[in-house]
Amino acid sequence: MEDEHFGVWLGRQLRRAGMSQAEFAEQLGLTRAAVSAWVTGRAQPRPDLMPRIAELLATDVATVVTRDTDAGTTRPVQWHHRLAHQDGGREYGNAAAFAFDANLAVLAREATQNSLDERLDATRPVRIRFTLHELTGEHLHSFLRALRWDDIEPHYDAAAESRQKVGRVVAEGLRGLRGLGDEEASLLLLRIDDYNASGLTGPEYGDGRFAAVVRRQLDSHKSDRAGGSYGLGKATLWAASRLGLVLINSTLSAAHEGRTARRVVGRLDLPWRTVDDTAYAGPAWLGEPDSEKEHEGVSRSWWADERTVADLHLDRDSDDPGTSFLIVGAHDAAGNCTTLQEMQNALVTALADNFWAAMTAGRSTPALLEASVRVLHNGEAVLPERPVDPREHRPALTHALRAYLDGDTVEELTAADQVAAVRVALDVPAPRSDGRRTKGVTHEAVLLVTPADDSDEEHSRIVCMRGTRMTVTSRRPRNLGFGADPFQAVLLAGYATGEDGAAVHAAEAFLRAAEPPEHDRWAATEDLTATYANAPRKLSDFNTAMDAALRAIVGRRLERQESAGPEVLRNLLRLDLPAAAARRVDGHPAVERTRGRVDASGAWTLDVAVKIPPREDPWQLTPVVKFDVRSGGRPSLEWAELSAVENCRIVEGRIMVDQDARTARFTGTTAVGSHPVAAALAGVIVEVQQAREVAQ
Fold first, then answer.
1. Which of 9-23, 189-203, 671-685 has the highest mean pLDDT?
2. What long-range pairs does 575-578 form, CB within 8 A, spacing at least 24?
């Protein structure tokens, strides 16, 4: 334990002993003001008082002088369960846990993003390690004893009887823990350790990182540079546990109660239940009973010794600040992974997919993140630890970002190993809350383009990111044209550009508000539309600008390619129907013009203008795309993507036309898997349908 000020140490000893400053002062024969001065650090006790202080605290003089341990006996660590609400309300699980798909990929994404958000030293990467640890036999029993399993087992039995979803998951967890027939009882732990992170700093119940994670829901407590913003990501830790149980050991970057090492607590999330005729609300905490009157009996975090953290499998391998989260009874709720090897593969893949950019370093620019995954059985390694190398998983994308970090980009691609960079404008409107009549700002995002690697299974899309360079979305560019070679493109926006300034800050806030809880796209969220005027149009314009910038890089080659080739094939692939060619249905919407080409992936990219007749209620249209064949029925295709361009919006595959609009425009990309033949072998037509009425 690190040395600490006498007043901080004394205040904690009085709290642990349940003794007030006034009571302590009376037994010392002093005034309360004198003891208060010690606790607040304004004064120190005289040396001749040390023996009496040690006696009252049930310790020795050496402990009072060195303050390298707590005085007296250790308060018993115990479980505290929240009692049921007096108004009869019940929660049958933590609703925040259902905001995401409960699988290992989502867990890896959310947990790692939270660690990146808490990066401490900007000159070093955050180091994160995932450890899958299977316990059986005596190793399992030893862990359960350290966990005080006997105290919480009745609560699990009661929760398992619930007919709610959480109850069924708990019942499955208990079956694995207890074993069935010849099957050996086992328990899977998944520990997530981060280093060079802030740790769970702050008070037990007040505002701070600790309370945001351990005590509260929907409390993000993040800086404006963070990737997360809803305070939901932490719920994936508990959602990944069949037992709804997570243990925590944190090394703090800023001292709390004079200490930084081994701040330990456990949190259990169960549904409403009744045990021994007492009803409980849901959550419970493992910790030291609080002696403060306001929170008397509540379990609070405690400063554990090295033996305790080892018994709970929470020991950390360095003194670097950060936090270890131990998910007890870990599983992949999606059912995609059943073996330790599959789970390791899933975690490595998820880390590479979402954080290849954060793990990419330049010649003089350190990576933001290092990650690895290991697998243990009863403390012994059973599979090699796998560091995540972004160059192995995303070679072309990593090459593109590194060229940007090193300043090695070009304006035009003339060789296969080059990376082109172009600026993309994002017009950010002023927030509505800004009472001043201020104009918006224009942020210049950066689009990087390079030829795809031969090993790339996915390519010819724009990977978009902001903040700490976590992938937000991967979108297919529109109207790229036919004949483009496979490419990789990265869009860096906001802080991901590595730049600073008012426009960068504004863009980061705007795009952050545009992300739903999953942080997997930029869309017209409630937060965005409530904060900014005309925000959906600005997002649409941003996408259009991305596509235009991409065409400026790859379009030169396309123009050369399009000037050659057989005339018959060029005519077949041309789709540009004027208004006169469109069949009208009076009083109903009609496709006025359709433009499109086959893109590099073999999909049709279409730009469709629709003429809208007047009526009182807004039109709701369903777009249908079909292959135009000479005989027989026209096969319908599926849409891979639909985007609104003018006077409309897309909702669940429908085109919602703006009130009083007389024209609307949208773009769409067909799903290649739905093509009965290659797109180059047939033309297409687009229809819009309203109820049973059709207009072509």
1. 189-203
2. 575/604, 575/606, 575/683, 575/684
Q: Which two tokens stand for residue 203?
A: 């008070």
Residue 609: which residues within 8 A CB-CB, separation 6 or more? 591, 592, 593, 594, 663, 664, 665
The 8 Å CB, 24+ separation contacts for 587-590 are 587/613, 588/613, 588/690, 588/693, 588/694, 588/695, 589/613, 589/619, 589/621, 589/657, 589/664, 589/688, 589/690, 589/695, 590/688, 590/695, 590/696
Number of other CB atoms surrounding residue 160 within 10 Å: 20
Q: Which helix (H) or strand (E) holds 634?
A: none
In the block, residue with structure tokens 């009745």: 154
**pLDDT, position 482:** 61
Strand partners, 670: 639
Percent of the chain with pLDDT over 70: 86
Per the CB < 8 A criterion, the answer to whether 156 and 399 are in contact is no
Two structure tokens written together for 385:
């630890």
How far is residue 445's CA from residue 543's CA, in Å, rounded to a whole number?
Answer: 12
CA distance 467 to 361: 16
Helix (H, G, I), strand (E, B) or coil at 86: coil
Which parts of 140-217 are beta strand (E)?
A: 186-195
**Bridge partners for 449 per DSSP:** 420, 489
Could you give phi then psi for residue 545, rounded to 5 degrees?
-65, -35
How many other CB atoms are found less than 10 A from the CB of residue 487?
Answer: 24
The one-letter amino acid at 164: Q
Q: Which residues pair with 470 in a beta bridge?
A: 466
> CA 119, CA 508: separation in Å to the nearest integer?
18
Q: How far is CA 647 from the centre of its chain?
A: 33
Q: What is the mean pLDDT of the chain?
A: 84
CA 593 to CA 581: how far, in whole Å? 9
Q: Which residues of 554-575 are buried (b: 16+ CB within 10 A; e: fewer)?
A: beeebeeebeeeeeeeeeebeb
Q: Which of 489, 405, 483 is nearest to 448 (CA)?
A: 489
Amino acid symbol at 175: R
Say how far apart CA 207 and CA 677 lie, in whole Å: 60
Task: Please state the pTM of the whole predicted model.
Answer: 0.71
Distance CA 396, CA 175 (A): 46
Residue 553: name the closest of 643, 490, 496, 605 by CA. 490
C-alpha pair distances (Å), 314 with each of 209, 309, 322, 347: 19, 5, 12, 20
- For 197-237, the pLDDT digits (tens) are 999 999 988 888 999 899 876 554 554 544 444 445 678 89
Decide: 647 and 594 in contact? Cβ < 8 Å.
no
Structure-token pair, residue 110:
């959310």
Per-residue pLDDT at 494 exceeds 70: yes
List CB contacts of 348: < 8 A, sequence separation 6 or more: 373, 386, 388
Distance CA 50, CA 189 (A): 46
DSSP string, 231-298: S-TTHHHHHTEEEEEEEEEEE-SS-BTTB-S-EEEEEEE--SEEETTEEEEEEEEEEEEP-SGGGTT-
Tokens coding 143: 């862990």
